[in-house]
């Protein structure tokens, strides 16, 4: 697995920058359309808008209409990208995502920015710790949560090729970049980022970095296998079962509510297969956030390397 | 096949009979709106107000008919079958298991069904999305979106109108069935819409009003809509819910229910036929 060589010397870059760059590159494809609800700069769609004004629509502050309009474009053979913050889209337009997009498998790509603690200072109501839980139950929808800037770029190219609706969440602001241009990316395929035999640590999004740091710090004490689930749906069942059977202990960490998120998805797989494991989940514990810097929120609400280490130590009893 | 206006009015009553038969057969569905809009749906398709081809239902150049108020679908299904999009006998499968005739339409569940609808207000946004693509790519095809009047209470609808105005969608025709009725009662009691025309005009729409039971007038107003440039049009279709069946006309209780067997016999006899023929 080709990650960056040294976790102590990582670049810090914003996921949305990678997204904006690839969006512009993909704009050469005339099926590509972009719609946005008054967040052109924040969602990094400005360059696309400048280069391809004929395939860009500024919707104003109207997320429900935006989702429906995108569905109409998809019915005309286009590949519309729907852009806003995750708290508004799919937060505000869930029914439009469900009915106008998912029921008919409209080829719409919904990109929720500033997910998790992303909108830190703006306070609880602009943060989105619930989006994965909301959309994961929608049939026909693929749910993607890339790890970092580089992976967002790979994921954006991949979801264009996938025929059908996709939700991709991106956190903010700039976070450490651990994957590289060489890191493979296949939709629906989990990535083993580190081999180990005692605890299976399953992570997604920005928790990939925290998880890798935790595993590194425990090195020599606890042998941790780190697996990145960038595609939360459809989830890579066989890889989850494999690591659970091997380690018998599983920790899941995500920048999301514990209820309904990746941890729930992993538990569903393990219960179905009857794999008996001890499990801990790291994430938001059924509470809303508050104003603060994203990194402060992640610490206060228990989504950090330290909390992951604590969970792992609890499981192995050392 | 070309019909005269009086032939179309007769056809509309046949469509009403089909609607009654479909609904009584399954024992559920929305009767009032479908009967009230039967003249419009007949005019739209059989009167040639949209260019569609039952033998090539997904022709790129077809006009797009978007049903936003999904519960009117029995009327659209009946007219599509009359046009030959699918066999008439399939109409009796409405709302039943394994049927293509869903209680609220799903996109391409049947030839001629362009979109998914149900939760109100969603069809208009899809229609606007299609019309933006059509306009920017200089297509000749037009988009007709059919809505209920109660549906205008959804905020999403006005978001869509704002965008349609911004994009100057002259290729979009919105038809609002102004039958003054919704599930909980008369629109003006449940949530007043008036002055609806003024509101729509304030949102930049070119507004026409027409007697929704006069097919000749409906055809004339569509000719006028084609002369509107640089802005979307709205046709306020004044109708009576339950039209054609005396004991249903104008009564809110028929919004969301199907006739019993005895009521269906009575309705069909009023419409000129009995259920058995």
From TrEMBL, chain A:
Residue intervals of the Transketolase-like pyrimidine-binding domain: 13-177
One matching Pfam family: Transketolase_C
Keyword terms: Thiamine pyrophosphate
Database matches in Gene3D superfamilies: 3.40.50.920, 3.40.50.970
InterPro entries: PDH/Transketolase, THDP-binding, Transketo_C/PFOR_II, Transketolase-like_Pyr-bd, Transketolase_C
Cofactor list: thiamine diphosphate
Keyword Coiled coil: no
Family designation: Belongs to the transketolase family.
PANTHER family hit by this protein: PYRUVATE DEHYDROGENASE E1 COMPONENT, TRANSKETOLASE-LIKE PYRIMIDINE-BINDING DOMAIN-CONTAINING PROTEIN
Protein name per its UniProtKB record: Transketolase, C-terminal subunit
From TrEMBL, chain B:
Family from the record: Belongs to the transketolase family.
Listed name of the protein: Transketolase, N-terminal subunit
Organism listed in the record: Candidatus Chazhemtobacterium aquaticus
Residue intervals of the Transketolase N-terminal domain: 12-272
InterPro entries: THDP-binding (IPR029061), Transketolase_N (IPR005474)
Essential cofactor(s): thiamine diphosphate
Protein keywords: Thiamine pyrophosphate
Phylogenetic lineage: Bacteria, Candidatus Chazhemtobacteraceae, Candidatus Chazhemtobacterium
SUPFAM superfamilies: Thiamin diphosphate-binding fold (THDP-binding)
Superkingdom as given in the UniProt entry: Bacteria
